[in-house]
User: Fold these one by one.
Assistant:
Number 1:
Amino acid sequence: MRYHTRVLMAALGLALGAGLTVAPSDARAEAGVFRFAEEVKLVTLDPQVHTGGGISYLRPVYETLFTLSPKDEVRPFLATAIKQDGLKVTLTLRKGVSFSDGTPFDAAAVVANIERGIQKGVLAALKPVAGAAANPDGTVSITLKKPDPSLARDLTSEAGMMISPRALKDPALDRNPVGTGPYVYDKAASREGVVRVYTPNPHYWAPKEIGLKKLEIFELPDDTARLNALKTGQIDMGIWLANPQAAILDRTPGLKLLRNSGGYTYHLIIQDRDGKKVPAFADKRVRQAMNYAINRPAYSRAIDFGLSVPAFQPFPKGSWVHDPKLENRYKFDLEKAKALMKAAGYAKGFSFDMPSIPIFQSRLEAIAGFLRDIDITMNIVPVEPGTLARRSMTTDFPAANLVWNSQTDPSYLGSWYVAPDASFNPYHVTPDAALETLLQDGVQSSDPKVRVPVYHKLMEALEDQSYLIYVTSTPLLFGVTQAVADNPTVKLRPGEDTPFFRGIRMDK
């Protein structure tokens, strides 16, 4: 890995030198047009089956029941109020709103969306929801299976996106989205695999918030192509992971690398922890050895180019759930890693398969290098871009690698990883009773002072089990032109990897 690190750092030096000499062109966007670049391909425009990245493709069309403010406060949106009494939740809805196809937005529409989302079973945010019903006064009643202190926040994302009831019946919803949002999807102008085009919704309930005559979202998973598009003025803004192109962007005159609050914690998930496919994964000492074998500071320098910090837990410093005691819990110790492998009976190592998409390839190559030092062979298996999260919900592989959004409520440690029916626990491994109790205790209150001690105990126990192996944490990174950096209408919200398209104006 030392050789690999030297090669990458040398390459970075060359790249940065090149980046400093290349200024963006004078190409300017057409007035009233905003051009955003995604790092993943579009898979679906149906929010209830959407997983992984690419939520920006949904945001122009679909609005959510609640939204987040730039200060990370949950605010009313399509729902104007929420009242929670134990397992009963009542939503008051905004009046005078309709979907772009003319269908009224009302309690029946909300119920249809929630019930379909439950039936689809993809969104972890709806797992605590038993059902919904429309009330005579126009409100919506939601019944929970268990307490859910993060429900309102959960309804600021896919689970809260409202689809026209008429469109819910369309078998081609994945390419024919209909919402209440300020823009409508222009299928004819869009080019599959290249760009998605959105135009103003003529029936929008808040017309003054439509500031664009056209919005274009380009599908540019290649980091170099996305950087070149920004340099040459073909796009105004794009999303980035920590990589050499982001480092170049940060040093290129005329461009800006914006660091949004919240961020991503890159991690490995050992899913086959009962050892059905890979017997070694059933031994906690093997999983701990993998944790000790990763040199996080070297990884951060060589792979994330100094744009990240080592991570030993899902929540970085500054988060209300961060536990200082877990810092350096698995500080790089190759000798200790080898000793644990020997004690577990795997001194000669073993092999396993790990799925990969292009934007994670270099990350996994580095991880594979670290694991080779303890004689573990990690075979990197490419999967179709945009399908990593979905494939990670199946038993296709014994392990996965994903990013955790640091603004996510800690209860998702249970609904994504730990609970028997968790989204990324496809082998349905049952946690021990102590973990089950902590998961239940964590959702009994919405008071952070009550919840923090519970989740600190949970994270400490998970660190010992070592089937969630955290590597580095990065802020959310956006590359923008200077004009966008100076544009007060382009707003970011903590933890969201897309700008708030509503209200953006791009006047000359």
Number 2:
Amino acid sequence: MNKYWALKLVLEKQSITKAAQIMGYSQPAVSQMLTSLEQELGFPLLSKQRFLVFPNSGCQS
């Protein structure tokens, strides 16, 4: 459940760091949750551009 909450917050805030702060987790812990979710689903969910995070096409559908 936390993986999906992490994804939702990252997409809303466009930042893994900000999502981690809201969740009370470290940035590496949230990154690991997202990696785990990507492996579970079988495709990448996010693209990173400088300090912002955007949904990939697989995440948008």
